[in-house]
Specification:
This protein is about 45% helix and about 20% strand. The protein has 9 helices and 7 strands. The longest helix has 22 residues.
Length: about 230
Amino acid sequence: MQISKRLEAVAGMVTSGSFLADIGTDHGYIPIYLIEHKRIPKAIAMDVNRGPLEKAKEHIMQAGLQDKIETRLSDGLEKLKPDEAESILIAGMGGPLTVRILSEGAGKLGACRELILQPQSDLKAVRAYLEGEGWKIVREEMVQEEGKFYPMMRAVPGEECKMTPIQLRFGPLLLANCHPVLKDYLLREQRINEKILTSLEGQKSETAKARISEVEAELAMVREALEVFGF
């Protein structure tokens, strides 16, 4: 099975040999890909929506993997048993939803040895949640695909060092490793925010002043992150 650059990067974070629970599996591409490449022995593909789950079942049957991938209709981790999954993957959801799924399903993480997360928004909230709940981020990646940027992380149980605001916002390991895709993202964000400030020049309304303050704060954080790259 051919999968997107984003999904391939996410799949690459799953530890070989682990039993995977793919939460919000959509069409089941990641568990199919991992089993076809002999990376994992079995998986549970879960989704809250019946339509995508039926599509996942079709793809699993087409691949002849129905004895290795079980599908379950489930809101988050609701239908997962505490001792089932060593790897839990949540990709393609918003940050707040990712946090809700993890917090509401905390009692289902008994056998979990790693979380593979690829939030689509508010990564700061996700990293803060992990920090507060005893999960340590041990790997981060970032890919660019069709003009969009996709950060992702692998976390394991363990004491996380307190992250600074800039690390929470952009990723401690992406910054520490001077990740080239993060650099491209930061340069783009700098250009966007500078353009917004230029468009707001001379505006005196309270709304404009509030927006200028907001953009200046974001630009300051972006520039601080770029200092890591020597800018």
